[in-house]
Hints:
Blueprint: H1 17-27, H2 29-39, H3 42-64, H4 69-73, H5 77-88, H6 95-108, H7 123-134, H8 154-163, H9 175-181, H10 187-193, H11 207-223, H12 230-245, H13 257-261, H14 266-273, H15 284-304, H16 311-328, H17 340-347
Amino acid sequence: MSFISQSSPHAHATNSTQKVMLTVAAATTPGFIALVYFFGVGVIINLALAIIFSLALEALVLYLRKRPIKFYLSDCSALVTAILLGLALPPYSPWWLIFVGCIFSIVVAKQLYGGLGFNPFNPAMIGYVVLLISFPVNMTLWTAPVGFANTPSLAEAFSSVFLNAPLDGYTGATPLDAFKQSQGETVAEIYQNESIFSDAVIAGAGWEWVNLGFLLGGLFLLWRKIFSWHAPVAMLATLTVCSFLFYNGGSDSGAPVLTHLLSGATMLGAFFIITDPVSSAVSQKGRLIFGACIGLLVFMIRHFGNYPDAIAFAVLLMNFAAPFIDYYTLPRSYGHNKSRRATEKVDV
């Protein structure tokens, strides 16, 4: 009688990498729909180009590394990186800007480190920060939301993306830009002078719905247990506390709490970026510290720094610190009374 030789664990994995990545990609749908509704077809063009460029670059590098292309592309990690980068870029970005971002996200931040599982930094945020530092003008040209300016036609969209035609008359300040550029004015004056704010909105027209869409997708991922609640809750709680403490309504006041929470890339960062299992902390205690530090850095950069939004910088800075956090928050090894760190110190 022969027995089947099978290595442990014998239970089938409930979440393959491909399944997790496709679930994350699907969860971005509510936020994506809100972005398209308020900012136009440029969001779709961004996403399509980012996906095409990312998959092509991943395939090229895999070919040069003599790795099986179909096997590695099928894990859909490059697809998720492309989606996150495409959603973060301003609509109607030039094609070359998206291409450069994909090069740094896929080739530099991911493949040069060895591929999925070896990258110490979030690939999409590496590409975004490189573009923000290198091409600040292009990275701040967000179109005004629907109702505040005419949405570019399809012909104008393609001219902007592929011919680098300017979209004069279509762009406007984001809510966080408005607060950053209106220093010296009280919060009431900012709300009165900036057209993106109205009686019906607090965090900026369109941006509230975009962030609520990503919040809905993030709650879906929590329900599916794709990641734990520790990092997102810690980040949002810290950002809430800091913005509440520094808000007084005067000329030296920070933005209101809801403006911080429902503007920019707050919810996209909280549920889709800082939860990256490769570049974040590992333990539950470590994820709480990791998320809280990101929330603190986001507020500090928004309130005291030169950049209106700060998700990418905060995430990359904490990617640096993730191994340090893991070292001091390692759980006790099974069968041992002391943590591994304490054991290492005794051995030394």
